[in-house]
Specification:
Pfam families: DNA_alkylation. This is DNA alkylation repair protein. With 241 residues, the protein is mainly alpha-helical. It contains 15 helices and no strands. The longest helix is centred in the C-terminal third of the chain and has 17 residues.
Length: 241
């Protein structure tokens, strides 16, 4: 008799698209030496994955999800994370159940190994869980030598930004000023931009203190929503130093 996870995989595979399966590896940089090296794709769009996740979230246990999160196929891992989010956001979930989901997530960060996997999940699980707790885990992720754990750290704080709390994000952005990867420059710039949408003066203060040291990509992402004249001012300041 088939297990539920086998029905899940069959359902997911119904949405395969050969053309997308050929395109996605280039989009997600899976070539030799690239950040997504070796990842495999079925060619399934995110909206289709969300439909499958919604259908199977109540049926799959964490043990089932453990066998799925290690899949070599990107879409299986992403749909697994979408299910994990749905479980975490269940209205009647207990604190103990939340803790189990968070432990599952942190145990499996090596499989949350591309920017979309991080971005869809980090704030909704890690950010939410640690919002009113000691942020030692965020510090651990920040100090990790793993690119994706670094991105989880900064993206987790998106939840806090939405709640109007910016201190941790600003601290992480300052910490990552000298990070060597473009994906962290983009993530930190994005979070600074989100702060600026809510409190432009906080963004300007950060720029005043750090614009000359910010990687160019980080700066461009951070100032994207500013006026043309103000963007020009910050970019010229960067060029002068």
């Amino acid at each position: 008799m088939k297990e539920t996870k086998e029905f899940f995989l069959e359902e997911l595979n119904k949405h395969k698209d050969l053309n997308k399966a050929k395109f996605f590896p280039r989009f997600f940089k899976t070539g030799p030496g690239e950040y997504g090296e070796g990842d495999l794709f079925l060619g399934i769009t995110v909206p289709k994955q969300r439909l499958v996740a919604k259908k199977f979230a109540p049926k799959l246990s964490l043990d089932d999800l453990q066998s799925l999160i290690v899949s070599p196929y990107h879409e299986v891992r992403l749909t697994t994370l979408l299910i994990l989010i749905q479980k975490y956001q269940t209205k009647k979930i207990t604190e103990i159940e939340k803790e189990k989901i968070v432990k599952f997530y942190l145990k499996n960060t090596k499989y949350i190994n591309n920017w979309d996997l991080v971005d869809v999940s980090a704030d909704k699980i890690i950010g939410d869980y640690y919002f009113d707790k000691n942020n030692v885990m965020i510090q651990k992720l920040k100090n990790s030598k793993d690119l994706w754990e670094n991105r989880i750290a900064i993206l987790s704080t998106f939840h806090w930004i939405r709640k109007g709390r910016f201190e941790e994000t600003l601290m992480l952005c300052e910490h990552f000023l000298n990070h060597n990867h473009d994906l962290i420059h983009k993530a930190t710039g994005w979070m600074l931009r989100e702060i600026g949408k809510r409190d432009i003066q906080t963004l300007r203060t950060f720029l005043k203190n750090h614009a000359t040291k910010m990687p160019r990509t980080m700066l461009r992402y951070a100032i994207e929503k500013l006026t043309t004249s103000e963007r020009k001012k910050w970019l010229e300041l960067k060029m002068e130093n």
